[in-house]
Amino acid sequence: MKKKSIKKLIPKAGLALKNGFYLEASWILSAIIEVKLRKVLFLITNENQGLSVGLHRCLLRIKSLQLKGLHPLLGKNMEIRLIDDLRIWKNKRNSIYQDMTVIHVRQARIRRMVEEGIVLHQELNNAFKNLKKACKQVLVKESALPAVPNEKTPRK
Predict the structure, then answer these.
(1) Alpha carbon distance 31, 64 (integer Å)
(2) Among 88, 94, 128, 153, which one has the highest count of C-beta atoms within 10 angstroms of its own C-beta?
(3) Torsion of CA 85, 62, 24, 105, to 10 degrees
(4) In 3-state terms, what secondary structure has residue 6?
(5) How far are the Cα atoms of 72, 100, 113 from residue 84, in angstroms, in the given order?
(6) Which tens digit of pLDDT belongs to each residue from 77-118?
(7) How far is residue 29 from each of residues 56, 66, 79, 125, 138, measured CA to CA in Å?
């Protein structure tokens, strides 16, 4: 998904929530969070995760990288608590989806899940921005050329 697509999806998720389409809002929000997590992984590992890597695998991979300490900027800019909260949210979402096939799920339950997802998305978005900024600063420091002394050659 491209950046423009995500920017278009965020207002649509808000509109779905506002109009009581909580299930649809949760689908949109899940897609946005998944794309953002893929971007985090690409930024850290420089590997394109592809569409086969879903939300669950992205969360596991990021947590694994954090626990191993392989990328210090990841640990500084994205708390493990956020990843754990996203996993809990994903599990609640899946539980609601499964319950819908068997019993009637109250709209309030779905709405709470979506609202929690929005808060988590905002935290993830802020963490991603900080991580991206930190990675750019490191790249600038690493690629900076040593200063060339200003030598004046004597004229003859």
Answers:
(1) 22
(2) 128
(3) -40
(4) helix
(5) 18, 24, 15
(6) 889 999 999 999 999 999 988 888 778 888 888 889 999 999
(7) 14, 24, 20, 12, 31
